[in-house]
Amino acid sequence: MTDTAQAPLTGFRLALAAIALALANFVVILDTTITNVSVPHIAGGLAISPSQGTWTITSYAIAEAITVPLTGWLIGRVGAYRLLLISLIGFALFSFLCGIARSIELLVALRIMQGLCGGPLMPLTQTFLMRIFPPAKMAGAMALWGVTTISAPIIGPVLGGYISDNWTWPWIFFINLPIIGLIVFLVMDLVARYETETRQERIDGIGLVLLILTIACFQLMLDLGREHDWFESPMITSFAVISAISFVAFVIWEWYDPHPVVDLHVFRHRSFSIGIIGIALGFGGMFTSIVMIPLWLQNVVGYTSSEAGHSVALVGVFAVVMSPLLGKILNKGDIRLPIFIGMLWIAAMSVLRMRWTADADFWTYALPQLLQGFGMPFFFMGLMSLAMSTVPPDQTASAAGLLSFMRTVSGAVGTAIATAYWDSNTRVSRSELSQHLNGAQAVVEQMKATGMQTEQARGVLERMVDAQAATIAVNHVFTMAAIVLTFAACIVWLVPKPRDGTFMMGGEGH
Fold it and tell me: Nearest CA to 172 among 187, 185, 158, 182?
């Protein structure tokens, strides 16, 4: 029996099913940021550099991004309920294996598998929420999905910091197991009746291979580039060339294939095409700060993982407060204006961070995070709704998958570019500072007068120079993020003025 023959759930069973599906979405998105503040702990445990530790973030995000646009095709082949169950069990299995991994190569490989299992869960949970809720309560279902989508990346750093400081880093993966176990139990009891019919569609093998080749080579280029002097390395150049060629081939193949693995014809809609560019730039710029702030606070300022997590998580306070008001605000007048203001507001928070110093107090670091929450819902949910506003119903699934794909990829790309830029700029700043130190010997003599040995005093001075160089570099990263976010805000006005009711249409479509 198919899902279309099943009535929506009611009462206590509806509440339990909604909680299970929301938790599934929450856990998958949580794992995109729970590792952010744990990177120094992972790097220390595996004897690698912090920049190599960020591979655990980007590998998961890219793998997740690959499977998101494939969800519709997978549902047709396997069935929605079976795919949900397989993805949940696979996600739990690879979470456990990530926790017991003892090399960066194995951990990255397992994070890729975890991301491949987690990718379908985002659109699947949204789909099932729409099936189990009666039409009159559909807005509540989408609000629940939206709150988990916004709150999970915010709670991730706090939870990751607490676990890393009080337990050990493998527990950021083990913590998934009891939650997934509860979700699987509830899903099997409450959601199985909503299984969909399967159909034996032709596998677009060429399109799938080209998609994986494009993303994998591009990500390898970003992750390994700084260690191999970028395009001075034949290997990095090869990755770049293969990625570019396979991308062009993928676009051409998918455009003309009658059963594409990703339907690119949705780009014919101007609102969608411009909106997805804004989302790519916006998430790339915003994710730069989400990753860089915990790294800098721990490696330079000396914060613990928990302290860094608390600083970053304050962005969720006003984001959660504003989310329930979003629909009312966006449905009044031209919705491009509040989206534009919200995105500019996020850019302004990057400007505030550009004057950070290594010896400032907690609230200097935390205030931009707290205030950024005002603009988050308008950027995240508002811009995605605007992009979906003119997409016809038969292309909604493809469009939503592409938006999620671009959101995830841009975050991973932003992370890789930001960490590479920070690393190289720190070296440049350190070299410049070392050449222009005034009174360095006098400072060394003062420290020796307090009882330090000469080498100890020089070591302290060297660490001071390193801290200042890293701070100058991270301020340059924030400058770059502010420019990108401002540009992303401005291109919103290139989207045609939407008709009335766009927000609800976009919300339901997405």
Answer: 158
